[in-house]
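From the shared-data thread, chain only:
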Amino acid sequence: MSKVSKFIIGRLRGCGYAFKGALLLLKTEPSIQVQTGIAVIMTVLGFYFDITSTEWILQIFAIGLVMSIEGVNTTAEAIADFIHPDFHDKIGFIKDVAAGAVFIAAITAMIIGFIIYIPYFFG
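Structure, as tokens:
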């Protein structure tokens, strides 16, 4: 098998693992399930209000940002729990910082949503 074939097969396998990970997040994590519901609502609103291409780009970016950071947060929490299952101040700090990153991403996404949709609702 050539180097190119091995490379392509490796990338396809990697995509499969990534898809599996995304499905695991959707199946097992309530926070991702909530974020997915919000993403669906925002997508429906986007079609309803016929938002511009730029607004779509910002909205999709915001949704992707929140869901990606939520996945990283879930990973950080799982690793922390695996390493130290009992309560520990440093583990608590790590979990709080990871949750804080999700909070920042979510607030950013809300602001983007307000900037996009307030003119459609009140304009």
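The chain is about 90% helix and 0% strand.
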